[in-house]
Amino acid sequence: MTLPTLFKDPSARAWTGVGAAAVALFAVAPLALSDFRLGLLAKYLCTAMVAVGICLAWGRGGLLTLGQGVFFGLGGYAMAMHLKIADAGPGNLPDFMQLYGTATELPWWWRPFGNPLFALAATVLLPMAVAAILGSFIFRRRVKGAYFAILSQALAAAFAIWLIGQQATTGGTNGLTDIQGFFGYDLDDPVNQRMVYFVIAAVLLLLIVLVRQLMHSRYGELLVAVRDSEERVRFLGYDPANVKLVAYVVAAGTAGLAGALFVPAVGIISPAMIGIVPSIEFVIGAAVGGRASLAGAVLGAIGVAWAKTALSEEFPAAWTYFQGLLFIVALAFLPGGLVSLAGIVRRRRASHGSGDAGGNMDGGRDGDAGGRADGDTVGNAGEEKAPAVPLGGAV
Amino acid sequence: MSELSGLGIRGLRVSFDGFTAVDGVDLDVRPGDLRFLIGPNGAGKTTLVDAVTGLVKAQGSVRFGGEELLGRSVHRIARSGIGRTFQTATVFEELTVLQNLDIAAGAGRGMLTMLRRRKGVPEPVARALETVGLADLADTLAGTLAHGQKQWLEIGMLLVQDVRLLLLDEPVAGMSHDERQATGELLEHISEERTVVVIEHDMDFMRSFARSVSVLHAGRVLSEGTVAEVQADPRVQEVYLGHAAVGDTTLGDTALGDTPLGNAPLGNAALGNADLGDTGPELPDEPEPAGGTPGGLTGAAVQEVRGA
User: Per the domain annotation, does A131 fall within a domain?
Assistant: First the structure.
């Protein structure tokens, strides 16, 4: 296969992308970065896992999931609970319970997490189960658009507030801190930290491949159809609630896994990492990079997380404003995210090349939007919509 | 495809906040019919289709092939073999023609099939592409199709969906003459194997292709029969042309010149000026009506309806 044909075939291009990412994550980064920076990268990669799910649910499904912190938190707490129990050793209570609690033994709902297999399964299955229950209520009641986003956000707030209120069993505002070991490995050892990084990188790549497969399956096509015209899909004999539910549950699963791996990478999980602000931050990365494209969402998430560290070191006060600005600018002026820039530049060049006036490029973009508005007569005008991104080009 | 089924509607009633849009409609469409639903704007035609397809709540009974449809959810009604289109073509703009059809074909697919990638073109999809004449455009994004092509794609989606009853809401609106002709022939072909109901405002189109016609007015069925029977029905003339024309045995200049026949009734009437204009040649020797109305059209329409 020659190089030009390689880049025309979307599947080959995707595998090239995954291969390049694997080289970067497994060879380049460990050599080029210090242990400290590699640890930070591990943290960013967890954010990218959440973005993989957001890309599916929001980019392809039109579900603006502003509450992924809930699922990230469920996965994170499930993992942290197990690690705290393991740290404490058999028969002992985790440190914070001895400090704040009056209990002399583990609460009943902590006990199953002592089993490593249960805890590992729970990091993914618990968020997915919660998403399935919430989602079936939300989608069957036909809650959509901004209402769905607000509801998601409220759930994230409620979960964080509940955790804070349960000081004796969840560690309250502090969360579950000072995690020492990871299935028998000491997390203070740089070699083990490196291993955690490799596990995270491998899981991220695996999730990308899985979700890409889902996006390009018949289900993925149907999901885009539901995003663009939910009523029409209903008249074809599908229940759009189920279609959306699958995307929502998968996104919850990736967020749960991300939360679970975040814990050994960072050594802590607390309500401040899963509430409203972090939930919005998860979405910003995907929006800036390009929500409908896996490559865009993943790179955007890593980039924004990196920028947060870099800029908040320099300008701690200004970062929040900058982040808000970034979100607004991306949604208002570049709804396809940074990945769509390439397409826009290509179109502009093409229109200049054919001797057309520069206005043509605007025409192209407006045309996309206008065409979709026409299709809206059936009545989901309020629905979130991703920009025109050809289905072939993800990853 | 299973055998042909007919549609039976009894006492159908739809109200929105006290306004009754469909007011006790009884309607029978026999299996394999190509039925046109006509009537002025606001007659309840689209609401009737909305009720049959489960989009709005209704009282009464709607039976298709012996199954009661009222009370079922939209997607269940769709699965029992009833498909519809909308006044504005509603296709999935960011998917290709092929993907649109493949989705339409797939409501019964199992989980494993859904999670796999589509390989090749399923046979019913290939047939529908040929039938609606979009085979060359299979890989085109549906959003870039011309208006008429979108309507055909929608009809193609109903074919792969394998519905036994097609409810089409103004399928030829905005089409050129040739496109209308092609669409009409397509519908005739389709109705050999399926039952077709068409809401239409284009009277020429209706005259050319309807096997039977129901006229709706103010939420009720006003008249029903062949094109000729319906056109001869004085009640239909009244609805379309105003009170003065009816009961007046000689369709004289006075009647036409009268205000009720002037702009108001025709302006609202579904007959539409363009259609009426087309009928002009049929009455070369009819005197132009008096009065300042855009009378040529009015006269032609009345003559056409009465003379049929």
Answer: yes
Chain-chain contact of A375 with B93 (C-beta, under 8 angstroms) = yes
The ipTM estimated for the assembled molecules is: 0.77
Rounded Cα distance between A11 and A7, Å, is 9
CB within 8 Å: A238 and B107:
yes
User: Looking at CA atoms only, how far is residue A364 from chain B in angstroms?
Assistant: 11
Within a domain: A4: no
A218–B143: do the CB atoms touch at under 8 Å? no
pLDDT per residue over B203-220, tens digit each?
A: 889 999 999 999 999 899
Please tell me the pTM assigned to this model.
0.80
Q: Considering the domain boundaries, does residue A133 fall inside one? A: yes
Mutate to test the interface with B, among A56, A141, A226, A235 (most CBs of B within 10 A): A235
Tally of domains within chain A: 1
C-alpha span between A128 and A122 (Å, rounded): 9
Q: Where are the domains of chain B?
A: 7-93+146-229, 236-307
- Percentage of chain A lying above the pLDDT 90 cut: 62
Chain A CA closest to residue B87: A377
Task: Show the domain range for A38.
Answer: 23-393
- Residue A139 inside a domain? The answer is yes
Report, at the CATH architecture level, how domain B7-93+146-229 is classified: 3-Layer(aba) Sandwich (3.40)
